[in-house]
Design a protein that fits this description.
96 residues, mainly alpha, 0% strand
């Protein structure tokens, strides 16, 4: 069970701004660099590119979700019942 919790924590960490996946969307990462090269609205300060930063709607949502997943996994590792305590709080992130 601990290996599952550790795997979940690592998956969450990968999507954080400095993680293996999240870092690819920074202006010097593989995906972010394309937007920087094109420039204009795709630049990190542009209308579209800004949405992928941690301050933007997309990047900020992903960053918050990654931190939440990592935090839930860490809490479950120290207190297994903690993983189920925030179910109502989690529902607001998953409902459309």
């Amino acid at each position: 069970m601990d290996s599952i919790k550790q795997g979940v924590a690592q998956a969450g960490a990968a999507f954080r701004e400095d993680g293996a996946i999240g870092s690819q969307f920074k202006s010097d990462g593989a995906a972010g660099n394309v937007g920087q090269s094109v420039g204009g609205p795709l630049d990190k300060h542009g209308a579209i590119g800004h949405q992928f930063t941690t301050e933007g709607a997309i990047g900020g949502s992903v960053q918050a979700a990654a931190e939440r997943v990592s935090g839930s996994a860490a809490a479950a590792s120290s207190d297994p019942s903690a993983a189920h305590r925030n179910t109502a709080e989690d529902a607001k992130y998953t409902s459309s």
